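G., the chain you wanted modeled:
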Amino acid sequence: MAKQKKLKAKGGLAWWQLSLLGIGCTIGTGYFLGSSIGISLAGPAIVASFLLAAVGTYFVFIALAQMTANDPQEGSFSVYAEKAFGEKLGFASGWNYWVSNILIIGSQLTALSILSQFWFESTPLWVFALLYSSLGIFVVILGTKGFDSVENVLSVIKVAAIFMFVVLGILAVFHLINHTGQEPMLPSNVQEWFPRGFPGFWGSLIYAFYAFGGIEVIGLMAMQLKKKEEAPKAGKVLLIGVTVLYTLSLGFAISLVPYTAFNDSESPFVTAMSAYGLAFFPHVFNGAIIIAGFSAMTASLFGVTTLLAQLAKQKHAPSFFQKRVSFHDLPFYSLLLATCGLIFAVVAALLLPGRLFEYITTAAGILILVNWMIILLSNWRLLQPTLWRICGHIIGFLLMLFAITGIALEETGRPGLYVSLAFLFAIIVVTFIVKKKRYKPKVWNGYPRK
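Predicted structure as tokens:
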């Protein structure tokens, strides 16, 4: 009880601040740049992919929010996985999230470097990767309050960028700005909506889900709330807002240019406005995307730093990772290991600049979905399931399984699938080496089923 009071006293965020922070952690280059990969696979049907991904993400959020409201835990989903299925899955879940976020950091760094070459074509990717990673470390060093403040400002900027594109899309549809390309129009038949057939649509789902990655911040940061029971409200506002922004902006993008014009080296929104002679737009929007990507990258860096300290508390990592320095109460060694991940990403950007963004994005997306599936299973095990909850778990689980298997059909996405499988295999092997005890079901002590 004393511990719960202490944790409660630490909270200082209002629910809307957590929503804004969640937007900062969710909207990044996975959407602003990675959605181009999804469009190239699915064509206009990418809008349907994002709607399905929103449905699956909603069920994951509900599952996590219910567990958070019932039993707030600093370790969030890794703690719930351990309570539900034992320390092996708690260990594996935590480290899977850590690895997936290191890959996300690499993905964001690569995307930021590609976008920065828009202005500085001759500058190598690794120079930009080094610059952005150094800035990200600086923001994390500011501590929780500094991180929250920076992320809130960047969140407003990235939402404003999407809103600006939606306004321009409306002006284009009503012919209020001149253009040299096709007339704004939506597909009129099934063939036009699904130009690459069902396999293309299937393969695009992983990129739609990846754009929603970050929803788990509601669980990780819920301990910062003044009222822990408001975590579900924060998540619902976040998810509804992000879904509306995503579908509206993508709908306008696919109506302005043919889907074949999109590629993974340029944001779909810059491509969509290329025929409208707005000289300022590519520069302004490219800058906004860089801000969004930096925001998401920094959020991932903060997340892995915080989580590793919690894993150390749970005895799933060496104890020294939870040691904090007096400066902003920072888990120094945890940040140091995350920095090693950043260095790995910079080296990868130097050695493998080709399709690196697509491969890392795919691998990170798959690992995120594995973690989300564990969240659904943990909720099922820990809380008394209702019919609605069971249906939601099944629908969410199948959608995510559908997204993972879909990428296997696309030749360009398979390397990312192989990378994710290699990481999963390594995590499983390490788990069984480190955690040799067999799980024994426990009485639901202190965790009432509802």
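Residues 92 and 427 are 6 Å apart (CA to CA).

Shout if anything looks off.
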